[in-house]
Design brief:
Largest sheet: none
Structural class: mainly alpha
Strand content: under 5%
Oligomer: single chain
Distance between the termini: 21 Å
């Protein structure tokens, strides 16, 4: 296994593709994780954290959509938008320093 912090940082930052293209925030990290998890040190755990976070955001967004009609969902969607923008950047910085990422409210889909 090789140490490649730049690829791990790129994987964290690839989640931001959702803001640029409207999709890709789940697909690109999933592809990077699936292809590099056995050859890059720490990629397996970090990739699982990223995919779990993105799937959790998807579930929380689906929950918030019907709640928009009672105005609670709007605040939930705004909070999810902020979380999905801030935490990939924070965790990319952590990964560049060799620290473990922490994604809040992340459900454990892939263990």
């Amino acid at each position: 296994m090789r140490q490649d912090n730049q690829l791990i940082v790129l994987t964290h930052l690839s989640q931001l593709l959702t803001f640029i293209t409207g999709f890709g925030g789940l697909i690109v990290p999933l592809i990077i994780w699936a292809t590099q998890r056995k050859s890059v040190y720490r990629m397996d755990q970090e990739g699982k954290n990223i995919v779990n976070f993105q799937l959790s955001l998807l579930v929380y967004s689906i929950i918030c959509i019907p709640l928009v009609f009672i105005l609670v969902g709007i605040f939930g969607l705004i909070a999810l938008c902020l979380l999905s923008f801030i935490f990939p950047i924070v965790n990319a910085i952590r990964a560049s320093h060799g620290d473990s990422p922490r994604y809040p409210l992340s459900l454990n889909f892939i263990s």
